[in-house]
Amino acid sequence: MADDRGAQAHPTARPRAEFNMGFVPHLPGARAIVPAEQAGKFVFLVAMGAMTQQCLDEMVNHLRAIVGGGRWTQNWGSPPPALTREHATAPELAAVFDMEFRPELPDGAAIMPDERPGRFVWLVRTGAMTQQCFDELRTYLLAIVGSGQWVQSWGAARPRTGVR
Length: 164
What we know:
By secondary structure, this protein is of the alpha/beta class. It has one domain (about 20-150). Helix content is about 20%, strand content about 25%. The protein has 2 helices and 8 strands, in the order βββαββββαβ. The strands form 3 sheets. A 3-stranded mixed beta sheet has the order 1-3-2, covered by helices on one side. Strands 5-7-6 form a 3-stranded mixed beta sheet. A two-stranded antiparallel ribbon has the order 4-8. The two termini are about 30 Å apart. About 30% of the residues are buried. Residues about 1-10, about 80-95 and about 155-164 have low confidence and may be disordered.
């Protein structure tokens, strides 16, 4: 789970987004990835074979750095709603979010963020996840960001940006 050190924020501050990811043998409806909520944390369950272990590990590490640095906050007044492909839509976004496949990434990376104020793009090396996993993950993340459940919260923090 995400590192909770320093999570004692000002009482009026939004809580940091908390998350985890893990592989499961299979998912209902032949899905590649499914969002869930476990103990107040947002979790992506990933079907075995839908993404590489390297991609999952790197995505978790990047998200821990992003969340730990306070650049994204969780905006849930109650437990997060279950998202399904049918409910995942992208209303007008406060921060532009997207995902792109790239034939290769620096240093052999499988996935890396390209983030600036008001913009976040996951760059995914071709072959690091299936097209189905990419499409489903993109849809879910567009819904989470677009609905305001996760909000980009910059302040003085500045991320290491990826390549464009």
